[in-house]
Amino acid sequence: MKLVRIIFLLVCVSSFAQAQTKVGTIDVDFVLSKMPEINNVQKQVEDYGKGLEADLQKKMNAYQEEIKKYTADEATLTINQRKARQDSIIGMENDITKFQQNGNQLIVLKREEYMQPLYTKLGAALEKVAQAEGYTQVLLRNNDVVYVDNRFDLTIAVLKEMGIEVKEGE
């Protein structure tokens, strides 16, 4: 098993040396935080969340009203009417529960939808910078990268390509 690993390592090293690769990194979250459009995206997501919250409140109000109506009419209802009203209330409870469970997922999906133009803009700028500077690979700069020489970090170059100024030390 060790022999296989050593052979694999030698093959990788020799192909790596022949390919003349140049690897860079980028901090996508930092770039996105500096894009002026991010404020609009955050506002849109907030507004969408408020809309979902308003819809949930309407459902909750209708549910509470149905319970009050059922409680007030319970003594005069027939068995079949009680059963129908109880089923309706249970259906409303299930609907509210599903709505609450799906709410966070809907917000995440909507955020991704609003962020797509920013990702596209960032990707185009990154591609320009990487091609201009001869990079063959660009990695996301995060906790998965063990060591990075900052000379190969493209974050600032991409921001400049996008026309975004960054203060020294950020």
Give the CATH H-level superfamily. Answer: Skp domain
The proportion of strand residues reads under 5%
Biggest sheet strand line-up: 1-2
> Helical stretch count?
5
The structural domain count equals: 1
Q: Percentage of helical residues?
A: over 70%
User: Class, according to the CATH hierarchy?
Assistant: Alpha Beta
Whole-angstrom Rg: 28 Å
How does the major sheet shape up?
Answer: 2 strands, parallel
Flag low-confidence runs.
1-10
Shape: rod-shaped
Distance between the termini: 46 Å
Question: Class by helix and strand content?
Answer: mainly alpha
- How many distinct beta strands? 2
CATH architecture: 2-Layer Sandwich
Reading the helices and strands in chain order gives HEHHHEH
**What is CATH's topology name?**
Protein Binding, DinI Protein, Chain A
Instruction: Please state the average pLDDT score.
Output: 84
Brief write-up:
The protein is mainly α and 170 residues long.
Descriptors:
single chain; 170 residues; Protein Binding, DinI Protein, Chain A; two-stranded parallel ribbon; rod-shaped; disordered N terminus
